[in-house]
């Protein structure tokens, strides 16, 4: 069994041919070494739109990119994480009744210093806090977490500073498919949907 | 004589583009199909809405079903986002129509009621609001949500969720919709 990453001519094929085999055309042939190095190690800026999205799923996507786990050359000590910009954090959507049920607690360390705030109250006070806490708690609990949080940029609306907007490389797809409201359907779609039942003629309370 | 126009009662709101008027104006009767006939006799013009006797609805794929959902083979296939289906079973102020009128069987009526509630809480039915006095501004914060099982006013915060082995879960969705067909590989989680 041969080592599968060696090119096919090495090993058994070396003694069979008289002339050396022609150089194989690799997929990286059109990039210079400098360009490939730059593309591999550069820190990219990703944009995610948080409108009507659950903050947990936004956090899962951002945590992967902040750590650098979306890159094949990931190593924990390589500092290969990218920047993530999340806009419209004011318009995130929790599933279920989490706006009322989810409680964010903190204790100052002093007696009677327990503060418990529901997600609604926290969101009204600071529209980026819910997403920020979600990402902070999903990152690995080591010293890199603070640097990765510095590479996260949250904005409550879609107003972004000029320099961050110039850095953005790619916008990631939203994790949740947003359903259409009834007034967003076109008249043709509404007419194409059949009526499932016919009302009796004398019923007027509709 | 003006050409008779087919007015679909339930969609006249969308056609005329009533966006800002929530309540207060007299809503046209929804869902009954009437044909508007205008007759001019000298100086009097009579505009009449004649109820169409035979409505041309396409035949359902399963005519032997007992309720409309079974007749159209939609038994486990709808959710809170299928607003076109849900809007056929609600009144103009958002309430459900009675079962003896729509003809739904009990379990489907309950499922549709639950989906309608979730659609209202998700904001997918903006024109089916109850009649409120003019200029009424609600003091509730406008937060986006979806798959909300319980009403917003009735839910209390979970102050202590407990340790991981006996955690108090957040309930999402509704157990009546557990039997829905799921085309993805991930199962539907009701406890988050």
UniProtKB/TrEMBL annotation, chain A:
Keywords, alphabetical: Mitochondrion, Ribonucleoprotein, Ribosomal protein
Family membership: Belongs to the universal ribosomal protein uL13 family.
GO molecular function: mRNA binding; structural constituent of ribosome
Disordered as annotated region, ranges: 1-22
Cellular-component GO terms for this entry: mitochondrial large ribosomal subunit
Gene3D superfamilies noted in UniProt: Ribosomal protein L13 (3.90.1180.10)
Subcellular location: Mitochondrion
Record-linked Pfam families: Ribosomal_L13
Protein's UniProt name: Large ribosomal subunit protein uL13m
UniProt-listed NCBIfam families: rplM_bact
Biological processes annotated in GO: negative regulation of translation; translation
Biological source species: Chelydra serpentina
InterPro entries according to UniProt: Ribosomal_uL13, Ribosomal_uL13_bac-type, Ribosomal_uL13_sf
Domain of life: Eukaryota
UniProtKB/TrEMBL annotation, chain B:
GO biological processes: mitochondrial translation
Gene Ontology cellular-component annotations: mitochondrial inner membrane; mitochondrial small ribosomal subunit
Subcellular location: Mitochondrion
SUPFAM superfamilies: Ribosomal protein S18
Keywords, comma-separated and alphabetical: Mitochondrion, Ribonucleoprotein, Ribosomal protein, Transit peptide
Major localisation: mitochondrion
InterPro entries reported in the protein's UniProt record: Ribosomal_bS18, Ribosomal_bS18_sf
A molecular function GO annotation: small ribosomal subunit rRNA binding
Protein family (similarity comment): Belongs to the bacterial ribosomal protein bS18 family. Mitochondrion-specific ribosomal protein mL66 subfamily.
Annotated protein name in UniProt: Large ribosomal subunit protein mL66
Organism: Chelydra serpentina
